């Protein structure tokens, strides 16, 4: 495979309607489906920086490979206000968080996997 310059997320559009694209070091646009294009009209548009960063990391477009770790997250809610189904649906909608990180360690994506939701029985 030939060397590809690292991709970066770039904001386009105006302040009211920002969109995000991925460009590489030689000015090509990420067009999705594992291809780059020289035409800006082929660029895949993302509504949020999080979506663009997630795609860049998943396709290893940033010049380095992404490492994935797992961690246990404890979610505590008021008793009897949430059913397990309601909580799972809420977590599914709000499952991704992009955390900036300290300088030099940017780009941390935290994902909650709602399918792993289990209620902890009190003892």
| Class of secondary structure makeup | alpha+beta
Order of secondary-structure elements = EEEEHHEE
Give, in spatial order, the strands making up the sheet with the most strands: 1-2
> Over all CA atoms, what is the radius of gyration?
18 Å
Domain count, please report it.
Answer: 2
**Global shape:** elongated
Residue ranges: pLDDT <50 for 5 or more in a row? none
- Count of strand segments: 6
Amount of helix: 10-25%
Summarize the main sheet: 2 strands, antiparallel
- Total helices: the number is 2
Mean pLDDT: 81
What is shown here, in short?
The protein is α+β, with helices and mostly antiparallel strands. It has helices at 49-58, 84-93; strands spanning 8-12, 19-23, 29-30, 36-37, 96-99, 108-111.
Structure in words:
There is one protein chain. The chain folds into two domains: 8-58, no CATH class; 69-123, no CATH class. A hairpin with a 5-residue loop joins strand 3 (29-30) and strand 4. The protein has 123 residues and is α+β, with helices and mostly antiparallel strands. The N and C termini lie far apart (56 Å). The model has no long low-confidence stretch (mean pLDDT 81). The radius of gyration is 18 Å and the shape is elongated. The chain has two helices and six strands. It is 16% helix and 18% strand. A two-stranded antiparallel sheet has the order 1-2.
